[in-house]
Amino acid sequence: MAQIVVDNLVKTYRVAERTPGLWGALRGVARRTHRTVRALDGVSFSIDRGELVGYIGPNGAGKSTTVKALSGILVPDGGRCEVAGRVPWRDRIAHVAEIGVVFGQRTQLWWDLPVIESFDLLREIYRVPGDRYRQARDQMIELLDLGALLDVPVRQLSLGQRMRADLAAALLHGPAILFLDEPTIGLDAVSKLAVRDFIKQINRDRGVTVILTTHDMDDIEALCTRVMVIAGGKILSDGTLVALRAQVTRERWLTVDLVDAGAAIDEPGATEIRRDGHRVCLAFDPEVVPPAALIQRLAGRHAIRDLFVENPPIEAIVARLYASHGQAP
Amino acid sequence: MIRAGGLRPYRAIVGARFRVLLQYRAAALAGLWTQVVFGLVLIMVYEAFYRSSSPATQPIAFAQVASYVWFGQALFAMLPWSADAEVRAMVRSGAVAYELCRPVDLYGLWYARAVAQRSAPTLLRAVPMALIAALVLPRVGLGEWRLAPPPSLACAAGAAVALLGAFVLSCALSTLNNVSLLWTLGGEGVVLLMTTVVTLLSGLAVPLPLLPGWAQPVLAWLPFAGLFDLPFRVYAGHLAPGQLASVLVRQTGWTLALIALGRWLLGRGLRRLVVQGG
After folding, report:
1. Chain A to chain B, count of Cβ pairs less than 8 Å apart?
2. Rounded Cα gap, residues A286 and A283, in angstroms
3. Nearest residue of A to residue B93, measured between CA atoms
4. Which of A2, B49, B97, B112 has CA 20 to 30 A from A18's CA?
5. How far apart (Å, rounded) are the C-alpha atoms in residues B225 and B198?
6. Cβ contact (<8 Å) for B8 and A106?
7. Nearest CA in chain A to B100
């Protein structure tokens, strides 16, 4: 049975609109005009226990709103939402006791307290029994390599260190579901890898269901078996990465290193999308032009040093998907 | 619903905040100094005022005014004249979302914050302030300006109980300040208003007995008199120890009413809350 069920969820915000300039500001005092924004416009999906789902979309697409509704912080205007059989905002206290949440841009640790005291405080707040707490804490400290940071006040941690401590904090009470809202935002490469490894590990070894919003497609490719794309408050795509690609385009890219940098390429069924010195990148549809035939024809006409075929990067796929629905990436 | 699992989380929050606030020793010292100066200035004004009028027509004697001023200055940090800087920062940054992700009653959590916010700085300031006003002033030739000791042990004990009542009342008002931050994003409007209201109506700026006679019934009815005017009257023996019960009833009644109001407002505030930042 699905652990998370979201059915036709709707949330609208009223945003005060201001005409620019002094006159606009003055007019705003007397009369406010409001614009309604549909942050969620009939969002539906369901997620099973132990899934690791990536949730992507342009800024303002409704990702965070969904996560907030799922974590019980926000009351939607319509639709149904159940997590482990509970309506999050109606049963808030019971619900939040069983989920972990990380908002990447904010910390849930106490700014002035050393990391370990924040952990102890969370233990009290979640009423975790002593032995279970010590076990979970020691495990987190080991997995996230926090040993050296425990006595450091949170405000002195680097962003990467803080994120590792925040991840530990979200899991001390042993939640079955983890919501991660942009957990890799602003992190350096090493920290990103550490965070990804950790997410993968707790999902695989402990069966924690993870829902991850991100703008970093490497996160998605490294972690997620399933990816949901939202834009303008609507789910545009929901499935595996392979299915997402197939939905948007069949296109492949052929990159060729020519001996003669100036050679003009004019192949039917292939369009030149980039040229950088000797290197030319062609896009083609493998169903129309079989790759073997294309390579053969090219090799017959030009002296070629090297070549390779690849899928367009997932960024390009997603950008195209956003664009096709009138959303700037 | 609320008390499920006991008070452990709330106690832990009070303890943690308390320890952090105790670290602000420099702020306490600066505050202490400001309040000594402020108290002295106020007393000078009242001395001039009493000298230029006939003291017999005044509702309270000058020495009592001096005691009243010091009592107020000593308890300054306990009064609900400000909002919690941490709550303000949380509402602004959107980190308030995390507060909602805790399996605890949010009003209880914020009340616990207020308990720490009002107790830690008071402990740091009230005792040295009282010592300066009661012991140091007489030694430097300002005996008339001192904080007079309570007339009896019963008065002292009664004042301690009344101060406890004042403390829970002040925490309820402080929590109300913090809840108001959910509406006014800047966190200034309502709290600024509260600062003025509290300073004036509690007796901090002008001792309540010196305010006009027609205002007295209203002042006595409002919750603010319970913050330190009533405890002072118990301390100074204006109210007989037997009247302590009525003071406590008024403080507790207001505390319960303000808690109910705070809970209701918090519920409404959260429903309309759009957590900042996407």
Report:
1. 82
2. 10
3. A106
4. B97
5. 9
6. no
7. A73
CA distance A327 to A65: 17
Q: Which of A228, A246, A264 is the C-terminal boundary of a domain?
A: A246
Separation of alpha carbons B142 and A90, rounded Å: 62
Question: Is there a single domain that holds both residue A35 and residue A152?
Answer: yes
- Mind listing the pLDDT tens digit for each residue in B98-149? 888 999 999 999 999 999 999 988 988 888 999 999 999 989 888 889 999 9
Asked whether the beta carbons of B152 and B159 are under 8 A apart, the reply is no
Q: A9 and A122: one domain?
A: yes
Domain ranges of chain B: 8-271
Which residues in A258-280 are b (16+ Cβ under 10 Å) and which e?
beeeeeeeeeeebeeeeeeebeb
Give the C-alpha separation, B230 to B232, whole Å: 5
Q: How would you list the strands of the sheet with A33-47, edge to edge?
A: A33-47, A4-17, A78-83
> Are A326 and A281 in contact, with CB atoms under 8 Å apart?
no
Does a structural domain hold residue A316? no
Chain B residue at shortest CA distance from A123:
B9
Q: Which residue of B has its CA nearest to A113?
A: B20
- The secondary structure element, H or E, covering residue B19 is helix B8-22
Q: Residue A174 sits in which domain range? A: 2-246
Residue A329 domain flag: no
C-alpha A140/C-alpha A119 separation (Å) is: 11
Q: How far is B263 from chain A (nearest CA, A)?
A: 16
Domain assignment present for residue A78? The answer is yes
Same domain, A161 and A188: yes
- The answer to whether residues A161 and A280 belong to one domain is no
CA distance B73 to chain A (A): 28
pLDDT band at B202, cuts 50/70/90? very high
Asked if the C-beta of B23 comes within 8 angstroms of chain A's C-beta atoms, the answer is yes
Task: Let me know whether A241 and A257 are in one domain.
Answer: no
Q: Is the entire prediction scored with pTM above 0.80?
A: yes
Q: Which residues of A touch B23 (CB under 8 A)?
A: 112
Residue A52 shares a structural domain with residue A140: yes
Chosen domain end from A246, A268, A299: A246
Same domain for A69 and A94, yes or no, is: yes
- State the Cα–Cα distance between residues B200 and B207, nearest whole angstrom: 9
Choose among B145, B181, B139, B165: nearest CA to B249.
B165
Nearest CB to A125 within list B9, B20, B274: B9
Question: Are B101 and A121 in contact (CB < 8 Å)?
Answer: no
Token representation of residue A50: 């132990």
| pLDDT tens-digit map of A137-154 | 999 999 999 999 999 999
Q: Number of structural domains, chain A?
A: 2
Closest CA to B227 of B91, B140, B142, B118: B118
CA distances for B82 relative to B36, B192, B206, angstroms: 20, 8, 19
What ipTM, to 2 d.p.? 0.82
Q: Is the pLDDT of residue B68 over 90?
A: yes
B9 Cβ under 8 Å from any chain A Cβ: yes
Structure confidence by residue, pLDDT tens digits, B204-257: 888 998 899 899 999 999 999 999 999 999 999 988 878 999 999 999 999 999
HSE of A228 in the Cβ direction (CA atoms, 13 Å)? 23
Is A325 a domain residue?
no
